[in-house]
Amino acid sequence: MSNIARHIAIIMDGNGRWAGERGLKRIKGHERGAEVVRTITTYASRHPEIEVLTLYAFSTENWKRPKMEVDFLMRLLKNYLQKETATYIKNETRFETIGDLSRFSPALREQIEKTREATRHGEKLTQVLALNYGSQDEIARAARQLCEKGGAVTVDTLEAQLESARFGPVDILLRTGGEQRLSNFLLWQSAYAELFFTQTLWPDFTPEELESIIDRFKRRHRRFGGI
Ligand code: FPP
């Protein structure tokens, strides 16, 4: 039986370089990147295998960027959710998040809740945006909660405390933009993920390339530690 691409997680890298190559400001790359988010999410919602698409939209490290870029990303995200809620509903896509939202503005948090609530019946796909997300932080928080509760610390009890656990293990972990690192993204859930790296910058990424990655994934031999 071939592998099932149930959960795909993507590190969307290369927006800044895409803009730089065209003599544009970095924010133009993010703008174009948001359009690709829409295209890939719509494609995934129609795909027979994909149930969960987790996208790294803002890491705990991204606050280090210039304030102007951070502010732009926040505005882009809010406008995107506002504008795209109808698309989520049309494509029967549920919107969810992982990460610590407490640092975001009340207006953005309100929009996140609105979109989450409006799309909660979506059954074709769950799109999870990782926002102010960092895997080590998530694991540390889970460990803290477990210590406070008391009881045995096992893989199962620790996993049950993880925010990302409800979306299940990652099958394909993809990074665009040419770098080959995980950048603190879904470390626990990717324990047995198949890793893919492409040189393509996120604004140039297409459903065709995603399909060819799924194709390669199907031909890989997954052993999960067995032989
Ligand atoms: C990495 O590119 C991308 C980000 C840090 C942000 C991801 C944001 C988007 C794809 C657009 C907005 C998302 C949504 C959901 C509306 P980079 O800036 O690190 O690129 P570089 O490595 O070429 O500089």
Task: Write structural notes for this entry.
With 227 residues, this protein is of the alpha/beta class. The protein has one domain (7-134, 169-219): Decaprenyl diphosphate synthase-like (Undecaprenyl pyrophosphate synthetase), CATH 3.40.1180.10. It is 44% helix and 16% strand. The chain has 7 helices and 6 strands, in the order E-H-H-E-H-E-H-E-H-H-E-E-H. The chain has helices at residues 15-21, 26-46, 67-90, 106-118, 135-149, 155-161, 207-219; strands at 7-11, 52-59, 93-98, 125-133, 172-175, 194-197. A 6-stranded parallel sheet has the order 3-4-2-1-5-6, sandwiched between helices. Strand 3, helix 4 (106-118) and strand 4 (125-133) form a beta-alpha-beta unit. Helix 1 crosses helix 2 (26-46) and helix 3 runs parallel beside helix 4 (106-118). The two termini are 16 Å apart. The relative contact order is 0.20.
